[in-house]
Design goal:
This protein has 149 residues and is of the alpha+beta class. It has six helices and four strands. A four-stranded antiparallel β-sheet has the order 2-3-1-4. Strand 2 and strand 3 form a beta hairpin. The mean pLDDT is 80.
Length: 149
């Protein structure tokens, strides 16, 4: 059977749990029509490049499918009838990549970079200035009085 990657965007008004439930709902359509869902990813609530139906954000989800084209067409038909689904796209692929998609890899890389940063200095600004006397030496009170004259 042909392999597909299918991405769809749902409205921002629904919860994350409802968006993930839609993945299961559309996966059931694929299995009823003789296909299998190899894997799926919920990418979360993300901003869009432009408004779609007055929405600036959307819940993104991706499904990896091994299904006949009739099953994918039926799933897309049901998504067009569903008011919560704003956009869909299906790609036929030669083979599925192992591991997480590029969207999920970028998220894990960002999380790893956040962990490698030095701890944040939560002291009040005045305390930090006292700790760094070279920063306080840059301010010259004479220059301020000359400008006011």
């Amino acid at each position: 059977m042909p392999l597909y990657e299918h991405v769809f965007i749902t409205r921002q008004d629904i919860s994350g749990a409802q968006a993930e439930g839609m993945i299961e709902q559309f996966g059931a359509v694929i299995t009823e029509n003789g296909g299998t869902v190899i894997g799926h990813e919920y990418w979360g609530l993300r901003p869009m490049a432009y408004k779609i139906n007055k929405n600036r954000k959307g819940h993104y989800a991706m499904m990896r499918l091994d299904a006949p084209s009739a099953a994918v067409q039926e799933m897309e038909r049901q998504q067009r009838l569903n008011d919560n689904v704003m956009r869909t796209v299906s790609f036929r692929v030669d083979e599925h990549e192992e591991g997480p998609s590029q969207m999920m890899q970028g998220k894990t890389a960002r999380d790893e970079r956040r962990g490698s940063r030095p701890p944040r200095d939560d002291r009040p600004r005045e305390d930090r200035k006292e700790a760094a006397p070279e920063a306080a030496a840059e301010v010259k009170p004479e220059a301020a009085t000359e400008e006011n004259s």
